[in-house]
Design goal:
homodimer; Dna Topoisomerase Vi A Subunit, Chain: A, domain 2; alpha/beta; binds zinc ion
């Protein structure tokens, strides 16, 4: 009865993490009441982001340019690469303003349960980048979860032949905690006290 | 660093009820990973709904046609009007498939706190509809909140001169509800309105 257009928008909204059918219904009514100020601008921003934003072919970060703005920023240290699971972690570290090097987004963690194996992660490209003599250190900033730490060990093993120095974030990241949930101070502390692997 | 397009989409998503900045970040990354299957379809569905869906000028329900499909459905009882606060309540009653008449969406409740007065609600149009001799009953289906009940009393007073029969939803124990979890007011109401078996 809502009209096929509303139903379709609701069904898509309900697929977003944290939203279910009920909150999608509330969201679409909220949007319909703010047609000009929110609904149309959101639709346009989503369409424009879908069109213009792409993963950086060097590091996996999302940007409208490739390589991304971080990879090409001459003020950023080209000797240090911080390896993260996801783009959300790049954003968390950038918000903390605690890291001045470059990133590498591997795109997940090894997980037998979820069927994620080494070939599903961007590790080959990391090994290639780390083989450049200009790169002197790789910081493994995986989440402090079992899968995150398993993945960090796997990456450290893969990087060993390159001779690059490999470090990880200091404990201070709560066990079981995810980077994206941390306050900026904790994140900055953990980065400063990073340890050789 | 996310690119202005992603930031803008995130800021709009963060304005949806139930989403904040953090869940908006998760949502936009979820969408970017499903560009073709979810992000672009969602953007198109929102744009299309914003373009095509309008409030029914008779009852306030949302539809692509005006009057809406419920108002013009010849199978629905034209003698009974169910008054609800919001379109979400129309959808809830339609899902329950418990009502075969027509609706009237007043668009909120009287609230001194939120500065909502009688002129902000679609009550004049309800009184006009109820004045049609073909309409024999108006069911007030406001939420069982203080503001909802205040609003129901106000509407009942406004309808009195039309002579139409005015009823409200029964209060009681929700189907499947456990007494132990119910608030005292509901329990007392359910007891007072007890029915012979
Ligand atoms: Zn990059
Ligand atoms: Zn209608």
């Amino acid at each position: 009865m809502a009209g096929g257009e509303l139903d379709r928008a609701m069904q898509y909204l309900a697929k977003l993490p944290g939203l279910g059918p009920r909150s999608a219904r509330r969201a679409i009514l909220h949007l319909m009441k703010r047609r000009e100020s929110l609904m149309i601008p959101l639709a346009e921003a989503l369409a424009e982001a879908a069109r213009a934003v792409r993963p950086c072919s060097t590091c996996g970060n999302l940007d409208t340019v490739d390589p991304c703005g971080i990879c090409t920023d001459p003020r950023r240290d080209p000797h240090t690469i911080c390896v993260v699971e996801d783009v959300a972690d790049v954003w968390a570290l950038e918000r903390a303003a605690a890291f001045g090097g470059r990133y590498h987004v591997i795109g997940g963690v090894l997980s037998a349960l979820d069927g994620v194996g080494p070939d599903d992660l961007n590790v080959d490209t990391l090994v290639a980048r780390a083989s450049d003599p200009a790169v002197t250190e790789v910081i493994l900033a995986m989440n402090a979860t079992v899968d995150g730490q398993t993945t960090a060990h796997y990456i450290a093993d893969r990087l060993a032949p390159t001779g690059v120095r490999v470090s990880r974030l200091a404990h201070g990241v709560p066990v079981g905690g995810e980077l994206d949930y941390l306050d900026d101070g904790t994140l900055a502390q953990a980065l400063r006290a990073r340890q050789a692997v």
